[in-house]
Amino acid sequence: MQPVLTFTDSGIYCPAGDFYIDPWKPVDRAVITHAHSDHARWGNKKYLCTKDSVPLLQLRLGQDIAVEGAGWGETVQINGAAVSFHPAGHMIGSAQVKVTVGGQTWVASGDYKTENDGISGQFEPIRCHVFITESTFGLPIYHWRPQSALFKDMEDWMKENDNAGKNSILLGYSLGKAQRLLYNLQHTGRHFLVHGAIYNAHEVLLKAGWNLPPVELITPDTPKERFKNSLVIAPPSTADSTWMRKLAPYSLGVCSGWMQVRGNSRRMNADAGFAISDHADWQGLLSTIKETGAEKVFVTHGFSSVLARYLQEHNIQAEEIKTAFGTEEETTA
């Protein structure tokens, strides 16, 4: 029996449907799991994604792309393949792609996390014959604390900064992490000031109807007193930049799963590290694989060899696959 999906130089290909999932080279038809640039690349002739991802793809790839959106669980017939999107919980609009051909169901998960962050949707495990999983944090040392505890830590940190006369700056990826922070810290009543990259995504999401708190764009004319007892959210690329130095005095916090490892916050010259990730931790990966009931698992970007070997040792057919995923969020996942 021909496999439902194959791995090619251009990406994950479906022969029966003649389409690619998250291709890393330009193709005629691309099915996209989410709007991060390592999964949604420019140059494809046609795009299919979730309805929630459409405005985000247009923001990143241009308004003139040929893109269609499908609803959650809606079956789209593409040639000989039945395709549907199911929540991945990674960021707004992120999806797993379920592909069924001739009674065989394969699921390409893209990036996913199993804890519901309140805005990205609850991850939905899908029963399938073959499961393609990421492994960004595929090591046993990665075990996430509940996000409620992490946000409490952030609140306490901000109060300490207020008392010390320092401005609070959190670094978080501009598309996904930033919205998670804004949504879950709005109850603090803080005034939010953001970098332009986050502001642009925020405006698109507000226009699309998402319930996010108001933010203020930081400009060269923003008075210094605006930062006092407020919260600045900026992308990691601004760390130790001229842009950031103008916000002094400040305390810098990095929001990333990599902060789980002691010493990473020091390497980024951060005053605080919060191990909050939009990817599944080790146990999340294992529980998801079990819930799919998959007979075989393909492991992509991250600690793929470790996870594949662990699955093999526990009598699950598994194979490591090299892809071009993971490049956008290597330091900010």
TrEMBL record:
Transmembrane segments: none annotated. The keyword Plastid does not apply. Keywords: Exonuclease, Hydrolase, Ligase, Nuclease. One of its GO terms (molecular function) is ligase activity. Coiled coil: none annotated. Gene3D superfamilies: Ribonuclease Z/Hydroxyacylglutathione hydrolase-like (3.60.15.10). NCBIfam families: Xnuc_lig_assoc (TIGR04122). This is Ligase-associated DNA damage response exonuclease. It comes from Chitinophaga barathri. The lineage of its organism: Bacteria, Pseudomonadati, Bacteroidota, Chitinophagia, Chitinophagales.
